[in-house]
Design brief:
With 309 residues, this protein is an all-alpha fold. It has helices at residues 2-15, 23-55, 59-65, 70-80, 88-100, 105-118, 120-129, 135-158, 178-210, 213-219, 223-237, 244-250, 256-268, 271-281, 283-308. The radius of gyration is 20 Å and the shape is globular.
Length: 309
């Protein structure tokens, strides 16, 4: 398929020389490449951690590290997200590996949502982006952790096992060394998740081109509408959680609460993350989890923004 696409591009370049020189296509390709290149290093980190969990960490470790009751395991797993220095692309394969190793789905999903939003790199980036508003760091940490815990508890209460279907991973031949098994597992996950990352990047690029920037300025003065618009914009732009604070800082016409919503929603649900979740846990999961996460993230951002900002 890649060969066919490359051939068509080359033919089109010579048959219609100006086909790829338009500003819209140039903007689309720039955003597409930026999203994919920005996410790829963290996706590699995620699949390596996922492979390490699957091959090097005994299942008994998680039994000892997490409380046996899912209600207590969820906040512990959510707080553990502070140790993974990556974006949302890294947390998806790690969460899938945790479920395979016997961690309750509710706890794994809490980790999936918290890791890209409360790790030290993201918090430092937020502090640098908002030097005059240090309360944004605390607000982002509290709201994002609250989203992770609430969604974990919500999945434990209402989620069904048949909604979450992990993709089958090929068995490693008997006698294979641990490091070889780790690389085999990571290679499989990277090839699979990478395809969904490309789909998410293409979707984000398309939406970036289609959404006029003038619309944003028109709604900035309407408090409720501004919050909803920036929440949707966070889903559409699909910016890495380690860079989104600088984008939010540039939206100076919007209130701090609206910008906090942008920072809380983005790492929890965006188009590339939805694609990765569908590829890892199945489309039935993504179609239910993503909308619920969006609603909870917006409500948590509003509540924390009202209390702290």
């Amino acid at each position: 398929m890649l060969g066919i696409v490359v051939a068509l591009v080359l033919v089109g370049r010579y048959v219609v020389p100006d086909l790829f020189d338009g500003p819209v296509l140039a903007a689309w390709s720039t955003v597409f490449v930026a999203v994919c290149l920005q996410a790829l290093p963290f996706l590699v980190l995620g699949v390596l951690l996922s492979g390490a969990i699957a091959t090097l960490v005994p299942a008994s470790f998680f039994t000892r590290a997490l409380p046996s009751r899912p209600q207590l395991a969820v906040p512990v797993a959510g707080a553990a997200g502070v140790v993974l220095p990556g974006c949302e692309c890294a947390s998806v394969p790690v969460a899938g590996s945790l479920v395979r190793r016997g961690v309750s789905p509710a706890a794994a999903l809490a980790f999936l949502l918290s890791a890209p939003a409360i790790n030290p790199i993201v918090l430092v980036a937020t502090a640098v982006a908002f030097p005059d508003d240090p309360e944004m760091v605390a607000a982002r940490f509290v709201a994002s952790l609250l989203v992770a815990v609430l969604m974990g508890w919500l999945w434990h209460a209402l989620g069904r096992d048949d909604w979450l279907v992990l993709r089958h991973r090929p068995e490693v031949p008997t006698g294979t060394g641990r490091w070889a098994a780790l690389l085999s597992s990571a290679r499989h996950d990277l090839l699979h998740a990478g395809g969904f990352l490309v789909v998410g990047g293409a979707t984000a690029a398309t939406l970036n081109v289609l959404v006029p920037r003038s619309w944003l300025e028109a709604v900035a003065d309407h408090s409720v509408l501004a919050v909803l618009v920036l929440a949707v914009l966070a889903v559409v732009l699909a910016i890495c959680s380690e860079a989104d604070a600088f984008v939010a800082a540039g939206l100076t016409s919007f209130s701090l609460t609206a910008r906090l919503t942008f920072l809380v929603v983005g790492p929890a649900v965006d188009v590339k993350l939805i694609a990765l979740q569908a590829g890892t846990f199945g489309p039935r999961f993504a179609l239910r989890f993503a909308p619920a996460t969006f609603v909870v993230a917006v409500l948590c951002a509003l509540a924390v923004g009202w209390a702290l900002l």
